[in-house]
Amino acid sequence: MTAHPLQLDHLVISARTLDEGTQYVADTLGIAPSGGGAHPLMRTHNRLLNLWGGVYLEVIAADPQAAEPADGAAPRARLFALDDPATHARLEKGPYLSHWVARVDRPKRLSTWQAQYPQRIPPIVPMTRGDFTWGLSVPDDGAFPGWQGAGDGVLPSLIQWDTPRHPSAVLPETGIALKALKAAHPQADTVAAQLRWLGAAHLIELRPTDGAPALSAEFETPDGPRTLA
User: Fold this and answer.
1) Domain Glyoxalase-like, which positions (predicted)?
2) What is the CATH number of the domain that holds 149?
C-alpha cells in the first residue's frame, strides 16, 4: 500500500441527461441532487448530492450546450467513457452507478506521483467548475482507468483539489451516509492488486464474478437502507 492511503472523494452516476440521473437518485435515495455546473474542457455537466463524512454523489451527463474548441481542433473525449458506444447502449436502459473517485491528499502531489508511474496512473488533467479547480486522472481516450486489461469503472479515478474548500462543504446536508461501496469483477485479483498499490483497497469491497464488472453502493437514509447500482 502507498504511504498515503487514499480517501473516498465521490461516487459517479452516469446518465443520458441530468434530469434522468437526478430522478434516478431522487427515486432511490429520497433526495434529488442539485447545484453542480459545467466542465467546459470535458463538455459535461453535473449535479451533486452531499453524503455524510465529506463524500458526495455526482450525477454526470454530456452537456448539450457545451461549446466546441475555439481553434477548430477536435474536442477531447469526454471523461468516464461517456463517448463510448457501449456506455450509450447501457444508458438507454437508464442511469447507473458507473464509477468512483479517490482523493489524493497533500502533501503527496498527484501530478508528481503520476509522472513517476505513468503506466499505472493516467495523465492528470486540470479541470474547473465555477470556483473549484482540481486535477483528475483521465486516460487520453476518455475511458475508465484500467490496469493490465482490468478496470471498467471498478478502479477509481484519482483527484486532487487545488482549493482548500471541498464541494461537500458547500452542499446542503442530507442525512444520507454511504455504508459500503461494493464491486464485482471477472479479473478481481488484478483489480485487487492495483487497489492495494494505490492505497485504495480499504475503500471498496471486491468479489470475483463470471459476469460483467459491476458497482453498487449501500446507503443509510432517513427512510431506511437504500442501494444504487
Assistant:
1) 8-198
2) 3.10.180.10
In the DSSP assignment, the letter for residue 73 is: P
The C-alpha atoms of residue 140 and residue 172 are separated, in whole angstroms, by 34
Contact 87, 144 (CB under 8 A): no
CA distances from 77 to 41, 112, 130, 137, 140 (A): 10, 24, 21, 13, 7
**What per-residue confidence (pLDDT) applies to 1?**
44
**Is the pLDDT at 131 greater than 80, yes or no?**
yes
CB 13 within 8 A of CB 26: no
Decide: helix, strand or coil at residue 167. helix
Determine the structural domain holding residue 107 and report its residue range.
7-63+77-175
Q: Is 179 helix (H, G, I), strand (E, B) or coil?
A: strand
Q: How far apart are CA 226 and CA 216, in angstroms?
A: 11
